[in-house]
Amino acid sequence: MAKPSIPVYLVTGFFGSGKTTFINYLLSTTEGGRRIAVLVNDFGDVNVDSEVISRGHGHGNVPEVHGVAGGSIFCSCRHWEFVAGLRALAGHKPDLIVVEASGMADPSPVKADIKIASDIDPDHEFAHAGTICLVDAAMFVSQLDLFPVVHRQVKQATIVVVNKVDLLKEPVDPKKEAIAARIRWINQGARVEYATGAAIPLPAALHPGEAGGEVPRPDRSLNEPGNQPGKLVLESSRTLARDEVLSYYDAVKDKILRFKGFCRLDGGWYHVDAVGGQLRFSPSPVTRERSEIVCIFVPADESRLVELVDAWRRVVG
Description:
Layout: E1 5-13, H1 19-28, E2 36-42, H2 48-54, E3 65-69, H3 79-90, E4 96-100, H4 110-120, E5 125-136, H5 140-146, H6 148-155, E6 159-163, H7 172-186, E7 191-194, H8 202-205, E8 230-236, H9 242-252, E9 256-265, E10 268-275, E11 278-283, E12 291-297, H10 302-316
Parallel strand pairs: 1-4, 1-5, 2-3, 2-4, 5-6, 6-7
Antiparallel strand pairs: 8-12, 9-10, 9-12, 10-11
Helix pairs in contact: 3-4, 5-6, 9-10
C-alpha cells in the first residue's frame, strides 16, 4: 500500500526578512480545517521563532511546532536533524508541513534531504511542494552583494516575496523594478510577489512554481571569514527597564544583523524584535527563568563579541 504523501514547503530568507511574520500570517488566514505543522530552525542558540509561533498566537490549526536552534539544519553536519524533524511532525498527521529555515541557511540540499526522510520513514512520504524566499526590499541589494547565501536562497526559490515594500523611499516603482530585475537575473523561473508585513494570500503563497535549478550540497560553507556571522545570547536575571534595552540596541544596531528574544520588563514578559532599525516590544505569554535576547553579528571575531558583551554589561549591569 502506498504511503500517504505530505507536502513540504520551505520558507527561506536572510535575517529579518519576515519569515516568522509570513508563517504567522499564513497560519492565521488558513481556513477549512487544514492542519499545518511547522519546523523552525533558529540560527541562534535560543528557540525564539518557534516559541512565537507555537505559544504567542495559539493557532488552532497547528498540530505541532518543532524547533531546532544553533545553526542551519541543511549543513552536512546537521541535516539529520531536519530529517528527524519531518518524521516527528508527520506523526501528528498534518495536511502539510512548513519549514522555516535559519537566516544563513543554504537551501540547496532540501530536496535530497526530503527524499532521505521519505526513504527511511516506513509510514510517510514527503514531497517538496515549493520554496518561498522572503527578501527585505530596503536591504536586499546590499545583502546580496555581501552574503553569498542570499544569492543561493533566491536561486532555489519557487516564489520570491519582496517584503517591507512600505519601507522603500520614493520613488518606489523604479526600486521595485530594480529588485525584480536582480531576482530574475538569478532565477528566471520564480514568481515575484510584493508584500507589506509579509501578507501574502494562502493560494498565492502555496502555488507551485519553478526553482532556479538543483545545486549539490556544498563541500564548504558559503560564508567566508569576512561575512561569517557570530552569535551570542544576552541574558539578565533581573527585571529590565524598556529604556535599558532601547539604549543598548541604539548603541549596537549598526554592528549587528539580528536582535530578538524575550525579556522581562516592568509590565511583564515581552517579545523583543528589531525590524527596520526599530525595536518592537510585544506582550508575550512566554516566560523564562531569565531574559534572553539573541544577537547575531558580523564579523564573527572575538573583538566584536567582547564589544557587544561589554556594552550589555554597561547598560544592564
